[in-house]
Design a protein that fits this description.
alpha/beta; 9-stranded mixed beta sheet
């Protein structure tokens, strides 16, 4: 079998029915297959089973990769058996970033991996007879994990497998959570899981962040105390805190939701791995300061109002986290400075949300390298340590202000990729974006120690423009679209 860095095979399935593509209704949870498949004799549909094209699309994508091809169409077909033997551990990593779309008109179907997709993925995972399947993610600290599981019948999907006595664990990988009431951040709970349930992975001087680590004190995540990042990222040290369930897995099934992303351009297979890390302060997202004077990459042009706004946010994150009203006041003042300055500079923003962000892609690719090469002791080996397969939910993708305020983009697609960089290359093509203008995707094919991909796939089977073109995030408009700059 080829290693994941050499196998750039792809498979794309489109919604087969007439009209606009859609998921089965939530009333159909737990989303049993509506067709009889020989590999699942016990799941033969009963009369009146609601149509579920999503199950067949996941099946078709796995078959399209040529997995266990000699037995396809027989009761013995076991596509994931190409990767793991019975008794293995499998980790399924959805996109569960937040329990609500911050764009009320956008809805949740373009926000998170749909439960109907996860139902099909889990069926094939259990077909491989694993000793354990872990379904988990590390959402934003303000995500209500319980509300997330309430969405679109996810609890019914989980209950389906547990009722059959199958070994399914559902895990929130976060160590820190935040309670929010309205606009007030009213409480932070830390150390929710012990550090023993994680593995510290240090890429050292081979991290892709090393090139910009002269600015290590400027590394930032928007609503986190910057002082907590400094022990983990500095010249020669670049550490990530990876959930042990991920590194213990023999096979990781990466199940992202395809969306635009205001900091990275696009979020798909590569960006989805941010959720394998337990504490966000291990994840540099941007660098404080402006790009034009070389001080950072948070925004394009330096101005005193922007610097003051950044300083106010730093002060709030360092000293006001336990004082919700004072914290909110500091936030409002900082954002007001930015909004006022935007009249003179329309590109002004405060979260590294633009095409010049030269930090976030490095963090994402480091995490992909950690997933591929890190052992349970945190040391990176010369060869891949586990199998990885991506199954992408793009039935209704997200466009515009992703990842937290997307608008729906119905494409009716599910695709599978053996290599995450190849998957993101296809994602860009489907969205109508130029991957060479998105560092996250383009640099994933670069030469590095612990490479992610050794070749680029041939996308001629799926020419760009076959899907409706996506609307880019505001800070990327005119820079990544086909025919753009």
């Amino acid at each position: 079998m080829k290693s994941p860095i050499d196998d750039v095979s792809l498979a794309l399935e489109r919604h087969p029915g007439p009209g606009a593509p859609a998921y089965p209704p939530a009333s159909a949870a737990p989303y049993a297959p509506s067709e009889a498949y020989p590999e699942f004799p016990a799941l033969a549909p009963e009369p009146g089973t609601p149509p579920n094209p999503v199950f067949g699309m996941v099946r078709g994508a796995l078959a399209g990769l040529g997995l266990d091809a000699g037995r396809f169409g027989t009761p013995e077909w076991n596509p994931l058996g190409d990767f793991v033997a019975p008794g293995a551990k499998i980790a399924v990593k959805p996109n569960w970033v937040l329990h609500r779309n911050e764009n009320p008109a956008g809805g949740m179907d373009c926000m998170v991996t749909h439960p109907s997709v996860l139902r099909a993925v889990l069926e094939y995972a259990f077909l491989a007879k694993p000793s354990l399947v872990t379904l988990g993610d590390a959402p934003l600290q303000g995500c209500d994990f319980g509300a997330l599981l309430d969405h679109a019948g996810m609890r019914a999907v989980i209950g389906e497998f547990r009722a059959r006595g199958l070994p399914l664990a559902v895990t929130d990988y976060r160590r820190t959570t935040m309670h929010q009431e309205g606009l007030l951040k009213t409480g932070v709970s830390e150390n929710r899981r012990p550090e023993s349930e994680y593995v510290l992975v240090d890429l050292g001087a081979d991290s892709l962040l090393e090139e910009i680590s002269r600015d290590w004190k400027k590394f930032r995540v928007t609503v986190y105390d910057p002082r907590k990042m400094r022990p983990h990222h500095s010249p020669g040290r670049h550490r990530y805190l990876v959930a042990r369930e991920i590194l213990e897995a023999d096979l990781v099934l990466n199940c992202p939701k395809l969306k635009t992303h205001k900091k990275a351009g696009v979020t798909c297979c590569l960006k989805n791995l941010v959720g394998i890390n337990g504490n966000k302060e291990y994840l540099p997202h941007h660098r404080k300061g402006a790009a034009d004077d070389g001080s950072g990459d948070n925004y394009s042009r330096a101005h005193w109002k922007m610097s003051l706004a950044e300083d106010l946010l730093d002060f709030a994150n360092e000293h006001l986290r336990g004082m919700p009203r004072a914290y909110r006041l500091a936030e409002r003042i900082a954002w007001r400075f930015m909004v006022k300055h935007r009249k003179a500079d329309p590109e002004a923003q405060l979260e590294g949300s633009w095409h010049g962000n030269d930090t976030i892609w490095r963090t994402c690719l480091d995490l992909n390298r950690a997933l591929l090469y890190a052992g349970l002791d945190g040391r990176l080996r010369d060869g891949p340590q586990r199998q990885v397969l991506s199954i992408v939910d793009a039935v209704i993708a997200g466009q515009g202000t992703g990842p937290l305020e997307p608008d729906p983009l119905p494409t009716g697609a599910i695709f599978a990729a053996r290599n995450p960089a190849a998957g993101d290359l296809l994602a860009c093509s489907l969205l109508g974006f130029r991957p060479e203008s998105i560092r996250l995707v383009d640099r994933a094919f670069g030469s590095m120690r612990w490479p992610i991909a050794n070749a680029r796939p041939d996308l001629s089977r799926w020419p760009a423009g076959t899907f409706p073109a996506a609307r880019a995030p505001a800070g990327w408009v005119g820079h990544i679209e086909l025919g753009g700059k």
